[in-house]
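FORM 7B - TANDEM STRUCTURE REPORT

SECTION 1: FIRST PROTEIN
SEQUENCE AND TOKENS:
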Amino acid sequence: MPSNIRKQIRITGVVQGVGFRPFVYALALRFRLGGFVANDSAGVRIEAEGASEALDKFLSALRDELPPLASIDSLESAEIAPLGDAAFTIHHSHSIVGENTPVPPDIATCPDCLAELFDPANRRYRYPFINCTNCGPRFTIIRELPYDRPLTTMSGFPMCPACEAEYTNPLDRRFHAQPIACPVCGPQLRLEPAGLAGDEALLEAKRLLRSGAILAIKGIGGFHLACDAMNAAAIEELRRRKGRAGKPFAVMVRDMEILRRYAEASPEEERILTGRERPIVLLDQRAGAGEPSLAESVAPGQAQIGLFLPYTPLHALLVDETPLVMTSGNRSDEPIARDNDEALARLASLADAFLLHNRPIHAVCDDSVIRVENGHELPIRRSRGYAPLPVMLPASGPAIFAAGAELKATFCLACGRRAYLSQHIGDMENLETQQAYERAFAQMRGLFRIEPAAVACDLHPGYLSTRWAMNFAAENSLPLLQIQHHHAHAAALMAEHSLAENERIIAVAFDGTGLGTDGAIWGGEILAASYRSFERVGQLKYVPLPGGDAAVRKPWRMALAHLHAAGIGWEDDLPAVQAASANERRTLARQLAQQLNTAPTSSVGRLFDAAASLVGIRQEVSYEAQGAMELEALAAQFLNKSSDTGAYEFSIEETSPFVFDPAPVWQAMIADLRAGVAIPDIAARFHRGVARLIARACVLARSRTGITTAGLTGGVFQNTLLTRLTREALEEEGFPVLVHRIVPPNDGGLALGQAAIGVFRASERS
């Protein structure tokens, strides 16, 4: 009889907190192997002993039969001396200094747990913290790795005998489910100021919501503010209290059947809505939806609405046939509240009651937001359900801390080939958000045991993230790598598509603001980009940005600046002119003529603002890109009903870099406006014109550089209509087209690009 052999197996990837050890244990039993499996801070270590054929089958099954939440980055095996083990065991976890392993994100409640939640015979019936190895909190409760209960926020909840029996049984669905709990030993609900607990708290919370109250609800990664999505008065009051004048709210619905009353969902959108990540998905509102209907004030001026399904057992118990507005538990521009005392203090003037629980949240994690373009995800905000899963970089290098941007702040910690992009933190405009940023950085730095060898940040010296990075680099005597904003956008797109270090793309980097290497405000760039360098091949013609933020808040200022640059008079019949008083027009004319408090900008974000103002859609905004979003909504509305192919045409000056001029577009738009062409038609022609411009610009860039792949990046490409029209136009010209699928095209993905560039720059320095 042939003798046994023994193999040592090292596995890295998402292999902790996902039921990997019981999976390995069950395979070992199936193939009659001895040995052990253990977690450590680098991943999973296995020693398996048995017949050679059985070990081969075991290794194949490790790769082919993974648990649903697991993924393998590497699997290495080597033969070692047999020890004669007949039994297979699960060993305790241990740490390895200097190693890190990916942490799974929080996962929506699985079907098995939902069935138990609503089963009166189950001991966890209506228990709002039910979970198992296949679902529940992960990232938000982990304090340290390896992922074991004492290193999570569940450490303060000793298991009852029934839970401990499940936790220690390798064949149980809850084996080593670190958040395991039940009504006897786990976290509990309470409702304040009513002083109710458990199911009574939940039932009273539902009654309050039906009566028009606004509740602060503690979730898995922070607080929500919730109200009845059909109650216009409650929504308007929530807007008043929160300081959120017009920005759309997200709505949670019980199930897909109810969701279809309000929106259209494609098969891909339904897959994302019901997947384990459970993000908010922006969907086309259902035409002619009957009663009952969502209040119009949920998403004013929008053709789409953000909808999502319950992702925690608490949500599943809370939402019924009446949809709920569920928005971040904060005032506008502040980070979301994390713990009970903080919420009771910060949200006291916002909420009528507080539905609290006593499971601590270690890492705050807001809801993710997704759009679908061409049957694929287009992330708008990457957070719960996705963060902090790593993106693999094209090469290893020194550990990098990349500080990200000012708006939609995220940061990135890169080590080896793994780039860990943080959850969405918010806009770095106040002390509270800066503190949340610092806290999140300290958490991830400790969790992944990454000590940066270099710091990467944006060129803009006024960004608070840049200042913070500069201070951190100085305090720790680390090299500082300042990276141009749009180059970072291009590198983020390249990294998520796994482009090799020597590849280049024609990057169409369109956004609102980014400091250029010439000191101007860029945002309409055609770049020939690699990770190491970029060349500005083309740009939108500079126009003056009058008054900085004032031009963003009041798009009529941008419209008049564009007309001024194009040599078009400010005639009284134009909506943008009518929006300004005579005194405001005189002041602005003097400012533009004398170049007072104006900076040159090539921003396509501001181009969209100007277009929305010029045709009368939006003259003042209450949130970022409001005018552009409403312009897109009208264009989509028209294109859904019409086969018209009209498009406004930009002129291109074939200089170096070449310059595209919108003056002919403004002239054509004004002519159509005066001819009585419908605003949605004008909006559609504008979108199609920008798409055709990009195709022309990329053809010209290809002829100059020889680069044959195009990529679309920057916040403007959150616009799925523009992205679709552009992708189709580029494909007609023979381009392979890269679009964001893992990180957002907006500044929420910028840190990944900074990290990718930083790895190469830091390697060259060392």
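SECTION 2: SECOND PROTEIN
SEQUENCE AND TOKENS:
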Amino acid sequence: MLTGKTFVDPLEMPFSRRGSYISLANQNGGSNQFGKSQLWISTSRIGGSGGAPGDLNGESPFRQVQVELVKDGIARNCVYHTTPYELIFECELGAVRFCIGDYKYARCRGTDGLSLRLTPKPGMFGMAGITNLHDGTFKVTFGSALLLFAPERGAMKETGGRLELAPDEDGVIDLVMEEWLIDPKRRERYMSYDECVANVKADFDGFAARLAPNLPEKYRERGMQAVWTVWGLTVIPDGETPYKRRMIKMMRVIFEGAFSWQQGMHAFFLSHDPDLSWEVLLSSFDVQDANGRIADSLASAGAGGATMKPPVQGLGLLWQMEHFDISKKPKDELEYMYDGLERWTNFYLNFRDVDGDGIFENQNAGETGWEDGSYQRLGFPLACPDMNAYLALQEEALAKLGRVIGRDESVNAAWEKKSKDTIAKIIELFWTENGWVAMNVITKEKSEPTSLLLYCALLLGDRLPRHIIDRSIELIFESGAYETKFGLASERPDSPRFHHGWCSGSLGTPVQALLALALEYCGHRELSKRIAVKYLDTLNEHGLYHIHNPFDGSMEYQTPMFFGERSLFLSGWTAGCYLFFAERYTD
């Protein structure tokens, strides 16, 4: 009986490569068990903050063309194997190897006399969506794009709404699958299969050497999966999409977009590659409206939604300035960063401060990034200490960057004073001896101090009085509070408002990342290491998902969540955090 061995299982992360919109995936909620495994050629050209338009519980448009291995007219049971560079689809009679050798095309090769059957999903009006171009190639509808099948060896024909590639006299099939947004035409030359593998290997191995040069042995296996996840979710500007710079997408299918506040965190997650970490931070400002609001997410289909996420770009910029000499960056990039950051900061001051006190409020839960945080029950406009801590850091970053690029010192001093005033107001409004609270600025009602999310205000570090830092740490780590065997719970488990969720009790990547950094900034690196190692061990055991159960460490949401997908895929957000923790907080 065949069994599949995987470097990364396509059930956890569809097989792809940096810059490509072609993926290879199993069936939704499938299995790699012999007799159950399926393989689909899939497209990731779908929407940004939740997939394609339509019903959130409807079927995903991700999987487009089913692949089967055929002998004597019979589709054979298969399993698959993966390396960082190839997916091998194997039946008892042989195998076909797949490699996405170029951003725009994949190639497959088989030498065992097997035929390849390709069955596209029905297109408009139930039609197969296959067009014979009468030059040996076939065009197939591929979601919002087109896929050209161009055989290099073997003979392809259409039969009953599907394509079959029969082997040549030597038992060989060799097929190129090229994605197009306009009418396709076969290239004069494609890389050979071996050239495809060599190209991918050089790209991935070079990326890994830059991004994770010092992974400890205990974290090397999962760490290489994390590198591969970040690599596969990295977009490359290609002139066909709105992306102007490299960005890191969140995950395949259900959040197939690059989210702005994640780029702010990747600025320190990925800092072993200074050029990449700077570029993803800069990318945050590539989609800003006339008021200065940054788009929540950016996908190949454009910006997603009329909301935004928290202003953590200042935190990312301060990290960059603390660890690198950014004065060596191109002047136009520094000016672009400053202008974007200033407009983003002024957006909050001009459009999210209804009472004019210099503390901004969110107008809906989506803007907080903590959509089901327990304090959302207060209603809106809602002011929070963590959100305003990000803004205070951003104001400070403007002062520091202004000095780097030579802005008038009166302007820099004004931003510096504004940051200090914001911090003073945060303490006045949100700190209590029982912990940090949020407040509805209209009703003046305050939340219970049970949400760990609000403690991200500790990112202010020694800008806060020592007694507030000490009491906050006491409250986080006191018996029965937030610390679990697997990391920090986002809501106290003994709180009446605890219910797992996204950030109302579960372990979420940004909570672990921001609190670990906050504890370090507060002078408690030993606590940062403690939390980081717990989270690393959780991810080692249960996978690079961005939501885990606080009681057993397992992945949360193992039932259909968005677009009918039966589980989450691996998260670029979490993979970046894993690399940051493994490199920074382990011996």
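SECTION 3: OBSERVATIONS ON SECOND PROTEIN
The chain has two domains: 22-187, 201-584.
Residues 201-584 form a domain with the Glycosyltransferase fold (CATH 1.50.10.10).

SECTION 4: SIGNATURE
Preparer initials: ____
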